[in-house]
Amino acid sequence: MADNPFPGFSTDGIDNRLVNPDVMAQPDDIHDVYRRLRAEDPVHWAEPTGFRPFWAITKHDDIKAIGKANETFTNSQRTYLAPAENEEHMLQMTGDTHLFRTLVDLDDPLHRHIRAVTNEWFKPGSLKKTEDSIREIARDHVERMASLGGECDFVNEVALFYPLRVVMKILGIPPEDELMMLQMTQETFGAADPDVVARSQRITSGGTGTMATSGEQAVDLIALAQSFFEYFGKVIADRKQNPRDDVATVIANAEIEGEPMDLHHQLSYFVIVATAGHDTTSSSTSGGLLQLIRNPEQLQKLKDEPKLMMQAVEEMIRWETPVKHFMRTCQEDFELRGRTIRKGDGVCLFYWSGNRDEDVFEDPYRFDVERRPNQQIAFGFGVHQCLGLHLARLEMRVLFEELVPRLKHIELAGDPAWTRSNFVSGLKRLPIRYEMS
């Protein structure tokens, strides 16, 4: 593999490969890195070129242990891996190393207070009330797939739009703003992938998007944040004046310890719900379908035993693990597997590696819709476990319940391709050929 043309990335050595988004876009390559670290150095001090050093944590139980120790390992200083130059640029531009301050960037007690604002909305009991409307959206997308003449790119025709429309409905965002929302959510996590940026621009401009220039930042993240804040600032103002039964109204009128929620936190709340609630589910859905295509006996099991669908969804999430890592910062010396993580050290939890841990998952590189137990940690662990995990599971279950019975035949119609991102990633292209009832 050639070195990445973007500055600050290299394929020279295991540390550089660990953070290189081009390696992440080749699942076999990055899993070779993870496998080696789990076997030889599961608590590994990494010093990638152009990055601040950190401890790479690749074993399932270690990731869980650090996730539970939220007072010892905090979020607010460093949330994800980025080149040191990018972090410094962000600090100079905004006065903060974080563009947004979402739930994943906060520590308790503020994190706990802000999470509580929408917690009721995302509980299984509350989501049950939305299942009929989610199923209607799923059926629309299955019908869309059926209308395409037996061939499509599943990512760009189905997986991108289905969870986006679900999130928009829950937030209370009007359908006419769909393309704008798609562009913002895609470019947040795919900013360094010219294909993803060009695709989103092409969709939103009616087919005139162009490929970003190699070697340049594909997206102006500051401008993107301004677009988010401008749009959701208007939503907040509207919901204060015209409250409705939606999540936007809850966020807009939220109070923290008797005081109105800070505007920046409100805006950041919208960003995390809109982006993470869309992109991660899209990735798990398309990645799950790819595995059903590659393992036709597993697809047949779902046809024969629909009751396996929830287990299948859990296996799809384990397999794809859309959020590849999160960072923590150590607040006091901590011993782990004979290594001392010092106060102030960065720690990176590699969830995708944890979800292939041979000590936890029998035959972890086998896709198995009947896998039980399935202790996948794709949603994180501890107080920062994903707020929308029940929604993601519901969306995926409903879509595959609608799609699988109608599939008479399905196969690849070309090579799949993954987003080049070391943080949140998944398939960006899944060409398929199929016959539906």
Concise summary:
The chain has 437 residues and is of the alpha+beta class. It has helices spanning 14-19, 21-24, 27-40, 60-68, 84-94, 110-118, 124-128, 131-146, 154-159, 161-171, 178-189, 194-204, 221-241, 247-252, 263-294, 296-304, 309-320, 351-354, 389-403; strands at residues 43-46, 54-57, 73-74, 151-153, 255-256, 259-260, 325-330, 334-336, 339-341, 346-350, 407-412, 417-418, 427-429, 431-436.
Structure description:
- The structure is a single chain.
- This protein is an alpha+beta fold and 437 residues long.
- The protein contains 19 helices and 14 strands.
- The chain has a five-stranded mixed beta sheet with strand order 1-2-10-7-3. Strands 4-14-11 form a three-stranded antiparallel beta sheet. A two-stranded antiparallel ribbon has the order 5-6.
- A hairpin with a 7-residue loop joins strand 1 (43-46) and strand 2.
- Helix 15 packs parallel to helix 19.
- The radius of gyration is 21 Å and the shape is globular.
- 46% of the residues are buried.
- Residues 1-7 and 207-217 have low confidence and may be disordered.
